[in-house]
Amino acid sequence: MNKHVFAAALSSVMGFTLPAFADVPNPIDTPYSGTIKIAVDATDLAHRIFKINETIPVNAGEMTLLYPQWIPGHHSPVGPISQLAGLKMSAKGKVIEWQRDPGNVYAFNLKVPKGVRELHVEYQFLSPQSSEQGRVMMTPEMLNLQWDTVALYPAGHYSRKIKFQPSVTLPKGWQFATALEKSSQKGNTVTFEGIDFENLVDSPMFAGSHYKRVDLNPNADTPVFLNVFADKEKDLEISAEGLTAHRELIQQMYALYGAHHFDHYDFLLALTDKLGGIGMEHHRSSENSAKENYFSDWDKSWVGRDLLAHEFNHSWNGKYRRPDALWTPTYNQVKEANGLWVYEGQTQFWGQVIAARSGLWSQENAMDMLARLGATYDQGRPGMA
Ligand SMILES: [Zn+2]
Fold first, then answer.
1. What residues have CB less than 8 Å from 18, skipping those under 6 apart?
2. pLDDT-based confidence at residue 265 (cuts at 50, 70, 90)
C-alpha cells in the first residue's frame, strides 16, 4: 500500500489528521549550501551517552533529515536508529515541530518557517551498556565514535556534496586517533577540518585513557600509524616480534598492489574485553579490535591476527575501488549485494595470504587456517557429494 493512502486511512480510522509529510526527496549531485556544524560531547561515561548538537544552514520550506541506514562495510540496513534519542529541533529560540516519516523510520520531516536560515538540532546516541543491547560503543576506558551513528543529514543531495565541520569533546585526559585532520583544540574539545559527509562517515575515531601510537613505516613519505587503545596500560607493551610483523604488513601490501592511494593511514586497534568487537574498513583508516592479550601473549593470540591485513586490504579493494552496486549516493538508499564476492571474498583471500607473508601468522598458523577453511566447506554444502 502506498504510504499516503495508508496515512489517510489511518487518520480517518483514528479520528485525527496527521500533519502533512513529504516523500524523501531523491538526491542530486550538487552541493548543499553551507556547512553543517556537528558537535559531539562524549564525556558522559557514567551513562554512556553521546550528546550531539548540529547547526544546519536551511531555507524556508519543507525538508527531511535522515539518519544513516545502509552503513558501508555492513552491507545491510543496520543503522542503529533505536539508539537515537531525545530529538529536538529549534530555530531563533523557538521549537520546530518534526514528524517521523510514516513510511520511513529513518526520515524526519519538518517545515522551516520563513526567515529562518539556521536550524538547531539536538539529540543523543545511547551506547548499549552490554552486548545484549547491541554493540557497546563507550566504556570507562575507551570509546568508538562512528559518525554514521551520531549524524543527521539533509535529504536531497549526494553525501559527498554535503559539507560538515565536526568537533568532539572527550573525557579529561583521554587521547584520540582518527583519519580526520585536526584544525584546533581548546581544552578537551577538538575541532577538525571541514569534510564532506561521505569522508566523515569514512573517518571514525577511537579515544581512550590508555593509548600508544606506533610508526609502522618510519621515514616514509606516506605515514602509517598503529594506534592502540587498551583496557589496561600493561597491554600496550608491544614485543619486538609483534612490531616487526605489523611493519612488514605495510611492506607486503605495498608489494602486492605496487602503489597506494592514501596520503596517510591510521590503524585503530582496541585491545579490550569491554568495547564491542569490530573489524571495519575505511579509505585512510580501519577499526579493529582484539583480545587484551593481542601483544602480551603473542604465541597464543594468532587466530584473529589476519584482521588488520583484511581491513588494510579493503583500502584498495572496497574503498579505492568498489563494485558499482555497492556504492550509493546516500546512506539511505538500498545497496545491492552484487560484487560482494569481490569486495569481501578477494579481501578475505588476500588478508590471509598477507597475514602469512608478513609474519602475523607463522607458516603453521596459515596451514592450520587453510585446513579449517577446507573443513568448514567439507560437508553439508550445496553441490557437495
Ligand atoms: Zn571485509
1. 7, 10, 11, 99, 102
2. very high
Start-to-end CA distance of the chain, whole Å, equals 46
In a domain, 329, yes or no: no
227 and 111 share one domain: no
CA of 252 to the centre of ligand 1 (A): 18
Model pLDDT for residues 126-163, shown as the tens digit of each residue: 999 999 999 999 999 999 999 999 999 999 999 999 99
Give me ligand 1 centre to Cα 310, in Å: 6
* Mean of the per-residue pLDDT values of the chain: 93
Q: How many whole angstroms from 348 Cα to the centroid of ligand 1?
A: 7
| 347-358 helix and 307-316 helix, angle to the nearest 10 degrees | 120
Whole-angstrom distance, CA of residue 96 vs CA of residue 91: 7
CATH number of residue 83's parent domain: 2.60.40.3650
Query: Does residue 198 lie within any of the structural domains?
Result: no
SS3 state at 219: coil
Q: Return the pLDDT at 2.
A: 40
pLDDT at site 6: 42
What is the Å distance from ligand 1's center to 89 Cα? 37
**Confidence band of 247 (pLDDT split at 50, 70, 90):** very high
Amino acid sitting at position 104: N
CA of 293 to the centre of ligand 1 (A): 23
Distance 312 CA to ligand 1 centre (A): 9
Radius of gyration of the chain (CA): 23
Give the other-Cβ count within 10 Å of 262's Cβ: 18
Q: State in Å: Cα 234 to ligand 1 middle.
A: 30
Q: Please, which pLDDT band fits residue 17 given cuts at 50, 70 and 90? A: very low
Name residue 195's amino acid: I
Within its chain, how far is the Cα of 94 from the centroid? 33
Q: Within this chain, do residues 158 and 218 fall inside the same structural domain, yes or no?
A: no
Q: What is the 3-state secondary structure (H, E, C) of 325-376?
A: HHCCCCCCCCCCCCCHHHHHHHHHHHHHHHHHHHCCCCHHHHHHHHHHHHHH
Confidence of residue 385 (pLDDT cuts 50, 70, 90): low
CA of 350 to the centre of ligand 1 (A): 11
By the 8 A CB rule, do 174 and 229 touch?
Answer: no
Residue span of the structural domain in which 244 resides: 211-318+339-376
